[in-house]
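Q: Hand in one record:
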Amino acid sequence: MTVTEPPLSRRRTIAEVWIVLGLSLGQSGVYALVNIVARLTAGTPLAEQTATLNASQSERPYLDLVYQLLSIGFALVPVALVLYLLSANGRSVTRSLGLDGSRPWRDLGWGFALAAAIGIPGLAFYALGRAVGITVEVQASALDAYWWTVPVLLLSAFQNGLLEEVIAVGYLYERTRELGWNRVKFVVASSLLRGSYHLYQGIGPFIGNVVMGVVFSWFYTSPRFRPGGRHRILPLVIAHTLLDVVAFVGYALVPAEWREALGIR
């Protein structure tokens, strides 16, 4: 016999959302806000500053590998937390969020489509941001070339996709819907949250990620893209992972003169 727990009170729902965000993307957003203020007041133009992704954490290769894996693993703990919280009523949370493998080919197809729709304009927007001086130079990976470098970058890309899409879209939608928010209010909140924790890369990436947030959250809530009436978060996870794989690994395949023109090292 399944015991169904009563729904959370409004006050407890709001408190839960703030706690979850404080442990995950909201915390990153606050740090990114402080970071962009520091950058803007540093006396050096944004275009001459650098943001490093996937930095090395030790000069010793295998210790660096351990640190990288620990960072990825602990970054996914908030995902486990929200899945646990959402499953409190006894339902299958992976099914309700669309994290199950019931529609693999459809999810994969939409994932690639979303990645293309965001990635190609995103690269052009990044170049524009660099040209007008509102985006810092992004170093996609500062890891040395070891046998484990590419696998770790792939895991990092997947971790980013799972963390951001499950919390900023899936979890936030479930809880804000319980608070009586309409679709537009959710899309705005989710998109601004997504943009906030990318502020450390400059104003351009903030705007670009807000646009990405609008597309992703609108897709997730659109009845047109809900087979069987169920939301599907997996296409967003796939799309986000693909975008980060290209950013973390694929950039190395781009000719050096192109990377230099785009401000990518």
About this structure: The chain has a mean pLDDT of 89. The longest strand covers residues 50-52. The first helix runs from residue 10 to 23. Residues 18-262 form one domain.
